[in-house]
Amino acid sequence: VQLQASGGGLVQTGGSLTLSCAASGGTFSNYRMGWFRQAPGKEREFVARISWSGGSTVYADSVKGRFTISRDNAKNTMYLQMNGLKPEDTAVYFCAGSRTYYGGDGDRYEYWGQGTLVTVSS
User: Fold this and answer.
1) What secondary structure does DSSP assign to 90-111, as a single string?
2) Rounded distance, CA 9 to CA 55, Å?
3) What's the rounded Cα separation, in Å, for the pair 96 and 110?
4) Helix (H), strand (E) counts: the chain
5) What are the backbone dihedrals phi and psi of residue 30, each rounded to the nearest 5 degrees, phi first?
6) Per-residue pLDDT of the chain (122 residues; tens, 9 = 90+)
């Protein structure tokens, strides 16, 4: 499956953005999906993940209550609604997929999108 993330941009503190991850070349509903991010000079970190059906979601503590992950299998797309953005949310956001793994270890996801930059100004 090929993944393409989009929707990043520049937003002020407290603002909102919705990221999208469009999948092609595979049966999207077969994949567990996740969002990760990498800030300048920092390691990649887990943000959120969602089960194949969307019935299970898990969030990093740093985004819990502010971000919402969702998916529309009919549209082959996953979303990340980000509210209450903070400067520390500034990063390149990546979507990732796995046929078998449902966890927070990015190294175990087989498929990755190219990333979309989110910049939160203070």
Assistant:
1) -EEEEEEEESS--SS-GGG--E
2) 29
3) 7
4) 0, 11
5) -80, -10
6) 999 999 999 999 999 999 999 999 989 999 999 999 999 999 999 999 999 999 999 999 999 999 999 999 999 999 999 999 999 999 999 999 999 999 999 999 999 999 999 999 99
